[in-house]
Design brief:
Layout (H helix, E strand, L loop, with lengths): L3 H24 L4 H4 L214 H9 L91 E2 L2 E2 L283 E2 L2 E2 L37 E2 L2 E2 L7 H7 L32
Antiparallel strand pairs: 1-2, 3-4, 5-6
Length: 733
């Protein structure tokens, strides 16, 4: 790519050349060879009698004075005097197709032109013969008459034709071997011989090297104030649009003053200041002028880092050793809780079981750094602040005044002189999991559900009655319960202290049936009848009347009638109020030893003869003097004239059922009263109907009706026409 000045030269030369061509074209139109045209060699274009191939001015007539003489060419450069732009100085054409050299196109060839580039400055001083135009081939007249031509590096070569305008050894154009890039500041020296880094271009942009770039770091803040030319960017080589300068901040300067440090600040922004907070501790170990790396983990690869580069802290205190000083560490104990909300900012306390615990809720610090966690006036230990108590309820070795419950308030209450500790294990009762020290924790792991039923009285395995609680109440185990069976009678006077047997009004003492001083509830033979209440297993009942004597001496040893009936119980007759299990109390049961329940819809037990003895146990239910076993009508009296156990039906065939209760057709009408004893006729619409006995029918037929019901009468209307042939079987016709 052409440099700016190369392009300028080409542009100027082109304009001059174009102007010269225009001039020649307008004044010597026929000078084709001058213009580069190749004329035909076998013609005479200018008509001077000399063929073009021999004519040294083929388009300008220049015939010799005498025939046979050569054409005039006094400088012998093969260009006739008539068309030679330097007739006295040889300046032949490079080829037939090219014109003589005339750089500025003024029709005076370069060989004889005193101002080759036509810029008004002679190439040589006419008096001394020394070079005068510092760019003889590139027009570079000064802007104002009398001024000298531009030559920035005063090397005698004008800027427009100088390959190194600023003379810093870095070429702008026509780069020599070994130089790949043009000078990034062609008008400002920034080569190897200049101070600083040769060709330094901090921002890497195409806006020039640092020596000529007004914003070296390309952060949009000019390096110098364009109005005053004074420094403006406080870090001209490091982008820092914010222009932060910590040690010039009034707050930081006030902190420095508090620390007794100079607080004047400096003009360097934080991005390039080796000591941003001006506390005398370098942010890193780079030399002045070098950039400060971003603060990440101080101490890695540096020898004297400031662990708070933006906050003055000459002491460099770093409690948690994380490389960030306390002055700028928002979690200086590194427990994950910001110091602003950390109740122990200098002691880690954010892991189980102590996650910011503050038992007393005071502003005196969390448990990890509070000497009296429960605020009961007794220090947790005798260590100086802020050393925390470790190990929960376990006191550090060597402590002389420990709180035996450091997390639960338990002050010394006069007249006591020590905190309460029932089992003397140095753990106060209020925080002791086993107050009585019997090996049974007072509460379940949830800390709420009680476990030891006598927390203040030992009743563990070693005591032989581990947690025995006879009454199952929440009033304590037997070891501490004054009424173990919860019957309202104190154990000291209870005749069954482990079995509930309260005094039941109107009685004034506990039940003791046999009066032996042992209550019935806990005696194995409560009634003293010689039969134990239970089998040896203590569970299976043995005496079926444990509270009523019914042993061998009583003659009815363990009699239990209803044991043989469905629904019977295991209670002996002596104490059973329903011996036959029929649901009727023995006091009102008309058969107390024979099961005869009341069957609905009846409301009383069956007693046909109403003699007070139920049929189930009465051997003459109808009370006719004939035992039921031989009575052919046990529920109907038939032992008196004229029916003394008569058995007429069926006719001619005795069936063992007396006439008084026989019902051969099963229609629930005894045969002796049934008008159709062999045909059921005791349901709607034919309930013992006997049409021909009806008064109306008797009147019509004039014949007394018979005693046969319609169901079995072949002539229902008694008109002497059998029903199967009678067209009015129910009306005489």
């Amino acid at each position: 790519m052409l440099s700016f000045y190369q392009a300028l030269r080409v542009k100027i030369f082109g304009l001059l050349l174009l102007s010269s061509f225009t001039l020649v074209s307008s004044t010597t139109w026929g000078c084709s060879r001058f213009l580069g045209f190749k004329l035909s060699s076998d013609s005479d274009s200018d008509g001077d009698g000399v063929l073009n191939s021999e004519d040294n001015c083929p388009d300008i007539p220049n015939a010799p004075a005498n025939i046979g003489d050569p054409q005039d060419d006094k400088d012998s450069d093969d260009v006739g005097d008539a068309c030679d732009n330097c007739p006295d100085v040889p300046n032949p054409r490079a080829s037939e197709d090219e014109p003589q050299a005339d750089f500025d196109g003024d029709l005076i060839g370069d060989a004889c032109d005193t101002d080759t580039d036509g810029d008004g400055i002679d190439d040589l001083d006419p008096n001394t013969g020394l070079p005068l135009d510092n760019c003889p081939l590139v027009p570079n007249a000064p802007a104002n008459p009398g001024d000298s031509q531009d030559d920035l590096d005063t090397d005698g070569i004008g800027d427009v034709c100088d390959d190194d305008i600023d003379g810093d050894g870095i070429f702008d154009t026509n780069l020599p071997a070994g130089q790949s890039l043009a000078d990034n500041c062609p008008l400002v020296p920034n080569g190897p011989n200049e101070p600083g880094v040769s060709q330094l271009n901090t921002d890497g942009q195409d806006d020039g090297g640092d020596a000529c770039d007004d914003d070296d770091d390309n952060d949009t803040i000019p390096d110098l104030d364009p109005n005053t030319n004074l420094p403006l960017d406080n870090c001209p080589l490091i982008p820092n649009l914010a222009q932060t300068n910590t040690d010039n901040d009034p707050t930081v300067q006030a902190e420095l003053a508090t620390l007794g440090l100079p607080n004047t600040g400096d003009d360097e922004g934080d991005s390039c200041d080796l000591d941003d907070d001006d506390d005398g501790i370098n942010d890193d170990n780079l030399p002045a002028g070098g950039p400060s790396p971003a603060f990440t983990t101080p101490g890695v690869g540096v020898t004297s880092p400031d662990n708070c580069p933006l906050v003055p802290n000459p002491a460099q205190t770093d409690t948690d050793g994380d490389g960030r000083g306390d002055a700028c560490d928002n979690d200086r104990d590194n427990d994950g809780v910001p110091d602003l909300t950390d109740n122990c900012p200098d002691v880690p306390n954010n892991t189980a079981p102590d996650i910011q615990n503050n038992t007393d809720g005071q502003n005196d610090g969390g448990n990890a750094c509070d000497l009296d966690d429960d605020d009961d006036g007794i220090n947790d230990n005798n260590l100086p602040a802020p050393t925390p108590l470790t190990g929960g309820n376990t006191h550090p070795p060597g402590t002389v005044s420990p709180d035996n419950c450091p997390l639960i308030p338990n002050p010394i209450v006069p007249p006591a002189t020590t905190q309460l500790d029932t089992d003397g294990d140095s753990v106060g009762d209020l925080c002791d999991d086993d107050i009585d020290g019997d090996g049974i924790n007072d509460f379940m792991p949830d800390g709420v559900t009680p476990l030891d039923n006598c927390p203040l009285v030992k009743n563990g395995i070693a005591e032989g009655n581990s947690q025995l609680n006879t009454d199952g109440q929440n009033d304590g185990g037997n070891a501490c319960d004054l009424d173990d069976d919860d019957d309202g009678v104190p154990d000291l006077t209870d005749n069954c202290p482990l079995i509930n047997n309260p005094i039941v009004s109107p009685a004034t003492t506990q039940t003791d049936t046999d009066g032996d001083g042992v209550g019935d509830a806990c005696e194995n033979d409560s009634d003293g009848d010689g039969i134990n209440d239970f089998m040896p297993d203590g569970v299976t009942p043995l005496d079926n009347c444990p509270l009523i004597r019914n042993g061998i001496a009583e003659g009815n040893s363990q009699l239990n009638t209803d044991l043989h009936f469905t629904g019977g119980d295991t209670m002996g007759n002596a104490c059973d109020d329903d011996d036959d299990a029929d649901g009727v109390s023995d006091l009102t049961d008309n058969c107390p030893l024979v099961n005869n329940p009341i069957v609905s819809p009846a409301t009383t037990q069956t007693d046909t003869d109403t003699d007070g003895e139920g049929n189930a146990c009465d051997d003459d239910d109808d009370d006719d003097g004939v035992p039921d076993l031989t009575d052919n009508c046990p529920l109907v009296k038939n032992n008196a004239d004229p029916d003394i156990q008569t058995d007429t039906y069926p006719i001619g065939n005795l069936n063992g059922i007396g006439d008084a209760c026989d019902d051969q057709d099963g229609d629930k009408v005894f045969d002796k009263n049934d008008n159709c004893p062999l045909v059921k006729n005791n349901a709607d619409p034919d309930i013992q109907l006997n049409t021909d006995a009806l008064p109306k029918i008797v009147d019509l037929s004039g014949v007394p009706g018979d005693k046969l019901g319609d169901a079995c009468d072949p002539d229902d209307d008694n008109d002497l026409q059998l029903d199967n042939n009678d067209n009015c079987s129910l009306f005489p016709n």
